[in-house]
Amino acid sequence: MSDDDWFERALRERDDGETDADDADPDESEQRDDGETDGSPGSDAVANPADEPSEDTPENGTGGVGEPLSFEDGDPLDGDDAPFDGDDDPFSTDFATAFENAPMPDAGGGLGGEQSGDEFGFGPGPGESEPPSFDDEELDSDIDRIDIGIEGLDDMILGGVPERSLMVTIGSAGTGKTTFGLQFLRKALEDGDSGVYITLEESRERILDTADEKGWDFSKHESEGRLAVVDLDPVEMANSLSSIRNDLPRLVEEFGADRLVLDSVSLLEMMYDHPSKRRSEVFNFTRSLKDAGVTTMLTSEADQSNPYVSRHGIVEYLSDAVFVLQYVRNDDFRETRLAIEIQKIRDANHSRETKPYELTNEGISVYQQANIF
Predict the structure, then answer these.
(1) What residue spans carry the Acidic residues bias annotation (predicted)?
(2) Labelling 218: which of 11, 74, 189, 324 has CA 20 to 30 A away?
(3) Is 127 among the domain residues?
(4) HEC per residue, 187-248
């Protein structure tokens, strides 16, 4: 056979690395990987039952029908040489039996020969101490963290929120979303940092007056050049969103802002009728805020039928942290309470309890030690 036949010989190689190109009859039919005769069109070979081996069945123990599996030519594996012998077959045991025979987890989370912990094998056993709760330990990391600036809520966030996070506060009308954003900026201003407040709902003067009435001196901070309050018409912002999105990171950097508030993103979302267009624009806008390197708080209207999601169900998936403000009404409807819940914070441990809060002239106070009944 000439050197030009190397490609034809290569095609006849099997997965076990064997090739019979040099010794095989050219007219002999090729074997499949499982050892059966190739039943290609025009071939007289037919499949035979396992109890009636045909003359075409391989006799060299290479895995043909009726023969044990072999890894070497002419040496069928049986007895002690067989890969799986009797009870050693990993597929001979059903799941229930295998589960009963599996080792129990030890107290350290590994697999031990002796059961530890309670009667179910979980938790501390007699004389063992209770492991610390995940929510009771701060996340050990090198990420710079900040406080929100709301009494009680910061105690629910162990270690603080990572800097440059994109957060959203979701709530229906009257739950204090604007106050939440103003209080978030107040913390930065009190610490000597700078902030930007963008409002799509109120005028600049109304925002300054609201903060001043609470004793937060936003007008003074603005005159000192550490606060910028910008009121934008939502229609104008939607029409100029591309320009604003491109300019915002540069403007934030030039101003030196540490925190930014956008109140509210729901009005921006309402400018787009098509869901895919709305999602694309909001995604690109939030990405520009992240690129600006500023810690951002968005406010969003809650869905009318579900207080735990935003009106369009977009921003909570794009955000690093989600706070939910909601009304809680008793069955007798005699009293309406306000409650806050931390839905998520990336890279931070936090309480998952729903806690009551109060909205007063001094801002928001969360009662961390109280419970909602």
Answers:
(1) 16-37, 70-91
(2) 324
(3) no
(4) HHHHCCCCEEEEECCCCHHHHHHHHHHCCCCHHHHHHCCCEEEEECCHHHHHHCHHHHHHHH
